Amino acid sequence: MKIHKKIALITGANRGIGKNILTTLIKKNIYVIGTSKTSIGVKNIKNLVKNNGTGILINFLKKKKYEDNFKKILKKFKKIDILIHNSGITHDNLLINMTEKEWKNVIKINLSSCFYLTKIFLPNMIKKKWGRIIFISSVNAYQGQIGQTNYSASKSGVIGFLKSLALEVASFGITVNSIAPGYIKTDMTKKFFKNLPKYINKIPLKNFGKTTDISNVILFLISKKTSYITGQTIHVNGGLFMI
Ligand SMILES: NC(=O)c1ccc[n+]([C@@H]2O[C@H](COP(=O)([O-])OP(=O)(O)OC[C@H]3O[C@@H](n4cnc5c(N)ncnc54)[C@H](OP(=O)(O)O)[C@@H]3O)[C@@H](O)[C@H]2O)c1
Questions:
Q1: Contact 162, 176 (CB under 8 A)
Q2: Ligand 1 pocket mutation pick from 9, 17, 67 by most atoms within 8 angstroms of CB
Q3: What is the CATH number of the domain that holds 201?
């Protein structure tokens, strides 16, 4: 299948931040391929995007299967112009109680996936001498969080990964950046809603962020006008943390 407009691949696009990125890019006339780890999620994505894109089943805990599915996508569409790796999980526990499974699963989904996923789509971007790669990191990569040694390690790993990658591919017209959200209203932060004032008090802008706050930065980073920005992380956290 040959598609003439830009094609974006967005991981974790069935809900939360990823879903908003998906719908935002459609409005910009970009063909979107969204991933979900469940068949029902893939169906939801397909219903949502209609002729403007498609959905695929990707579970970052099943490496062989997800690599095969990504390779099929590349074979079918010939290219991915914009790669947005948004899938992510938390599995909080104090280090003293953290199981090896809690450690490994968070690292696999949030960090190792960056390596395997990028390796599949990068050669074609290099060949075309154009590409935009964006990872979703977290404020907790920078400030740490009790119970999140696994999550903070994975999300700061993303920062190191993208900086080195940005250096390796800059001469091919490919930019690599990340967005580090603070508290954004999604399923991931649902557990904080019942005690909202406690969290909001710590945020200078006195509110949780919206998924559109992240999508707006995605639009900024893929714009022609920002093609001189690479190796950077944009912080979207209401002033919760400043570097
Ligand atoms: N919300 C926040 O406040 C916040 C703050 C900082 C960083 N972030 C980061 O932002 C990103 C999006 O988070 P969100 O708030 O939108 O979270 P969310 O609503 O919980 O969504 C998580 C996404 O990750 C996908 N996912 C989970 N396990 C997966 C697996 N095994 N394989 C593939 N995909 C998997 C989910 O896919 P399914 O729908 O198919 O389950 C879902 O689309 C994450 O990387 C998160 O760490 C969020």
A1: yes
A2: 17
A3: 3.40.50.720
